[in-house]
């Protein structure tokens, strides 16, 4: 209760000195701005700017580039947008004819072309890969053997 009383009394007090500038410091006296306004004006030394950024012997991007234009042929009379119209009967006939042909892709069975040594290396690699991915079953077997060992010890 005592804390709330002091807090409310603190709200009623006015600070002795405010943190903001008073309006008198920015007011003008007799129609002329105060000295603080004049100090904030920016002045440019234009001759220095011209000498620094535009020297007489410096060329800023006015170089002519002598390169041929990129070759591009424009479509003639909407050629790009329009194709030939498809006839459903012709398309169906072409699809039926292509279904009778064997596929053009190669089979994955290329072992006939490989030499005996290459086939042996492939078989060895596949065997090692199968052994590597068989770790789960190896762990199960190891746990089973450890459990049997523990049973034998007791």
From TrEMBL:
<feature type="compositionally biased region" description="Polar residues">
    <location>
        <begin position="22"/>
        <end position="36"/>
    </location>
</feature>
<feature type="compositionally biased region" description="Polar residues">
    <location>
        <begin position="1"/>
        <end position="13"/>
    </location>
</feature>
<dbReference type="GO" id="GO:0004864">
    <property type="term" value="F:protein phosphatase inhibitor activity"/>
</dbReference>
<dbReference type="GO" id="GO:0009966">
    <property type="term" value="P:regulation of signal transduction"/>
</dbReference>
<feature type="compositionally biased region" description="Basic and acidic residues">
    <location>
        <begin position="56"/>
        <end position="69"/>
    </location>
</feature>
<comment type="similarity">
    <text>Belongs to the protein phosphatase inhibitor 2 family.</text>
</comment>
<protein>
    <recommendedName>
        <fullName>Protein phosphatase inhibitor 2</fullName>
    </recommendedName>
</protein>
<dbReference type="InterPro" id="IPR007062">
    <property type="entry name" value="PPI-2"/>
</dbReference>
<feature type="region of interest" description="Disordered">
    <location>
        <begin position="1"/>
        <end position="81"/>
    </location>
</feature>
<feature type="region of interest" description="Disordered">
    <location>
        <begin position="100"/>
        <end position="119"/>
    </location>
</feature>
<dbReference type="Pfam" id="PF04979">
    <property type="entry name" value="IPP-2"/>
</dbReference>
């Amino acid at each position: 209760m005592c804390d709330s009383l002091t807090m409310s009394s603190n709200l009623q007090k006015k600070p002795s000195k405010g943190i903001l500038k008073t309006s008198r410091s920015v007011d003008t006296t007799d129609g002329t701005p105060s000295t603080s306004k004049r100090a904030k004006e920016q002045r440019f030394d234009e001759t220095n700017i011209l000498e620094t950024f535009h020297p007489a012997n410096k060329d800023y991007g006015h170089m002519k580039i002598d390169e041929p234009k990129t070759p591009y042929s424009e479509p003639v009379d909407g050629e790009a947008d329009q194709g030939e119209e498809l006839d459903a009967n012709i398309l169906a006939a072409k699809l039926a004819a292509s279904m009778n042909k064997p596929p053009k892709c190669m089979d994955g069975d290329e072992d006939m072309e490989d030499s005996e040594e290459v086939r042996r290396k492939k078989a060895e690699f596949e065997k090692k890969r199968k052994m590597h991915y068989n770790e789960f079953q190896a762990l199960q077997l190891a746990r089973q053997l450890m459990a049997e060992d523990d049973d034998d010890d007791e």
